[in-house]
Amino acid sequence: MATANVKIIESKLDIFQAPQSYALAHAVESSFSALRGTLAWQFSLIYGDVEELRQRRVARGNCAVLEHNARFVYYLVTKSSIYDATTYEDVQAALICMREHMRSHEITKVAMPRICCGNDGLDWKQVKRLMQQTFAHGEYPIEILVCEHEDMSKELAAPKCQITEAKGNLFSAPENFALVHSVSADFAMCAGINLQFRCKFGQMDELKRQHRHTGNVAVLEQGGRFIYNLVTKERSHEKCTYTALYYALLAMREHMRENNVTKLAIPRLGCGIDRLDWLRVRSLLELVFADDKVDIIAFFYTPPPMVKASMNIVCPTCHHMKTIQIPRSVSASRQSLYREKTPF
């Protein structure tokens, strides 16, 4: 049995930028509530499944686990509510629970912040010693990547980006606004707004040559305007996730910063056939662009309600007057079809 078999690396890397080969861990309270902008809130926004976690009724000193795309996310439950004080004993107990899950699944790398050393006020040196003690006598080497994270509470209270919602057609946006939509990595744009993008801008071969996969962005430029294709799934029949959308937005933000793009026109990303919740998607946008002075117009289209009109027809058999309902949108020239189909 090896001793001192743990390596703790402190890095300035943002925890959400940790390599995919690392599991992720952070501290939460047992009801999985979080204040807007905190790291726990950011995890709930990006990875979700909070209701599932709540149903497990995990007590303090334990660890809840979710899996996202073959990556484990550990929720170290270190207190009972956001107003409770965290103790070193609860932190160590939660770390031991995480260690046991890591052993059973042969997880050797995990990225986490300085657990409970921010608003909870614990001393990092002592927490670090607890980590070393907890993982010191493992069967195989463990690497803990201690990452930076930023509490975004103040930034989100007064974000630099401005999001305006507008009813109408995305393509009616001013020409100085870049256009954005979400796609699959196979670029099978065969329906809805994706088909409109394909018909209007084309260049499918160029998009495929960029070899972008889930969590990235393929970019076109036409007439001095950028077209951002957020890759949020591999194939068109799959469903977009908030996690994939978040990382695709980060990739787009980097391109925008490099090219001084400050205006975006978007649909309600992922809120059509992928059934994402617009309020949560909007919060993702606010999180990603909290430090960027960006104007975003979110276009949405509401189809007009179907209003029916009535038509009186004489039954050729009984000669009684019958009334049928016809959609208001049906032209007069086509109303005869309704007469022909009426079962008299």
TrEMBL record:
The organism named in the record is Drosophila madeirensis
Name recorded for this polypeptide: Macro domain-containing protein
Alphabetical GO biological process terms: peptidyl-glutamate ADP-deribosylation
The residue ranges of the Macro domain are 1-153, 150-315
Source organism superkingdom:
Eukaryota
For this UniProt entry, which segments traverse the membrane? Answer: none
